[in-house]
């Protein structure tokens, strides 16, 4: 990692941990730096048969995330909870869609993270067909399978902000602020290390039992000290500079931050179109309107971020992300309390009902088995994993 990692000296404007003491700041920075320079080893002693697979928690492009119980006696050195969310990715698909680098980045970033609003990573392993990332299991809300968005291009199985938002319709602005502030903190932290997230959307945000958020899915996260050109993200959330194949940096995350604020408050994203082409036209032409129900502060925040010209986009100018944090929309938000998760309980808008992970009512009926090939597929490509 470049020297930019150690940026953020106390006298700089871009002081990332607005809520932590100087000691904590140094500690978090050291943690990230030390881990970054080590490669997280894949655990050769682990294999899928050490786990009881309970149910699928979510699906993605290259596999699925499964709730798994580590069988007793199998791996004594494992710490903490015995339930894990295991992200299982198909090696063949990763190779076919050229996602190898993304997967290595994903694990490397996960390994370095230490933030209250990011999902915790434990270990990884691989076999002939798949690679596995094991994460802290966030139970979220009960599965809601019967909402109308099921037929749209986006849908999920439950446990994440997407399912909760579609179920609720939209959030009031106090609620939006509480969630947006946490996403702000995550981006502030990642950007301090020049890591871009690049895939913000409600599907990738989980709600923990205490009602605070956990960002998951670092599949597009990447260390980018300067600019990058890769086309990645989710159509509704794509910033104009990615659509236009321009080089980009942290600006893309702030664009998606505004899209998320809009989607949480309106119940749908700001830009739409009959198909992807029309959607992208709406985005590059800034064709959207804020509902009249939005407060002036929220509409102003969104208007100042959803700006095509990156040099005048809020969050991307001389004061960096501080311009977003200091925007009137966040006037009533105490970032310190949110970071330390010490808000009054009644300021936390929603806490998912606790449920037993083994409760039969939350088991899905037809789980397809995970078939592992007898041959070690793409062994060479995944040697580094
Ligand atoms: N740690 C977790 N605990 C519970 N559910 C999770 C966890 N991580 C991911 N999920 C669920 O699995 C889905 C897919 O995982 P994700 O990492 O986003 O995969 P992809 O990169 O394929 O989009 C998520 O949208 C979420 O619903
Ligand atoms: Mg995802």
Radius of gyration: 21 Å
Strand order of the largest sheet: 1-2-3-5-4
The class by helix and strand makeup works out as alpha+beta
Major sheet: size, sense and barrel closure?
5 strands, antiparallel
CATH top level label? Mainly Alpha
Can you list the ligands bound to this structure? adenosine-5'-diphosphate, magnesium ion
Number of helices: 11
Cα(first) to Cα(last) distance is: 19 Å
**Count of spatially separate domains:** 1
Poorly predicted spans: 1-15, 142-152
What is the tally of beta strands? 9
Secondary-structure element string: HEEEHHEEHHEEEEHHHHHH
Integer average pLDDT: 87
CATH fold-level assignment: Transferase(Phosphotransferase), domain 1
Helix content: 25-40%
Q: How large a portion of the residues is in β-strands, by DSSP E?
A: 5-15%
Known CATH architecture? Orthogonal Bundle
CATH-defined superfamily:
Transferase(Phosphotransferase) domain 1
Shape summary = globular
């Amino acid at each position: 990692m470049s020297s930019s990692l150690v940026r953020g000296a106390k006298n700089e404007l871009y002081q990332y941990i607005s809520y932590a003491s100087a000691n904590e700041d140094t500690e978090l920075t050291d943690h990230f730096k030390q881990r970054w320079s080590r490669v997280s080893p894949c655990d050769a002693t682990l294999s899928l048969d050490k786990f009881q697979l309970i149910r699928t928690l979510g699906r993605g492009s290259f596999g699925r995330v499964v709730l798994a119980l580590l069988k007793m006696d199998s791996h004594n050195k494992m710490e903490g909870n015995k339930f894990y969310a295991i992200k299982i990715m198909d090696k063949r698909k990763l190779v076919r869609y050229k996602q190898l680098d993304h997967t290595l980045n994903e694990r490397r970033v996960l390994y370095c993270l230490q933030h209250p609003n990011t999902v915790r990573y434990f270990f990884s392993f691989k076999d002939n067909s798949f690679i596995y990332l094991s994460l802290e299991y966030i139970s979220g809300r009960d599965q809601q399978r019967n909402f109308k968005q099921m037929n749209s291009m986006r849908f999920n199985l439950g446990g994440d902000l997407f399912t909760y938002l579609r179920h609720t319709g939209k959030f009031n602005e106090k609620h939006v602020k509480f969630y947006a502030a946490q996403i702000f903190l995550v981006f502030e932290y990642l950007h301090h290390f020049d890591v871009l997230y690049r895939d913000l959307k409600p599907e990738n945000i989980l709600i923990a039992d205490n009602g605070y958020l956990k960002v998951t899915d670092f599949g597009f996260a990447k260390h980018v000290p300067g600019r990058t050109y890769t086309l990645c993200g989710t159509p509704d959330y794509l910033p104009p500079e990615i659509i236009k194949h321009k080089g980009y940096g942290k600006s893309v995350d702030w664009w998606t931050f505004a899209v998320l604020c809009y989607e949480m408050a309106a119940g749908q994203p700001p830009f739409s179109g009959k198909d992807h082409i029309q959607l992208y036209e709406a985005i590059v032409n800034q064709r959207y309107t804020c509902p009249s129900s939005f407060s002036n502060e929220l509409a102003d925040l969104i208007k100042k971020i959803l700006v095509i010209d990156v040099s005048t986009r809020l969050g991307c100018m001389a004061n960096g992300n501080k311009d977003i944090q200091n925007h009137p929309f966040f006037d009533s938000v105490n970032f310190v309390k949110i970071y330390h998760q010490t808000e009054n309980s009644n300021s936390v808008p929603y806490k998912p009902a606790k449920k037993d992970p083994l409760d039969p009512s939350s088991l899905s009926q037809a789980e397809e088995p995970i078939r592992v090939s007898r041959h070690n597929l793409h062994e060479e490509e995944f040697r580094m994993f």
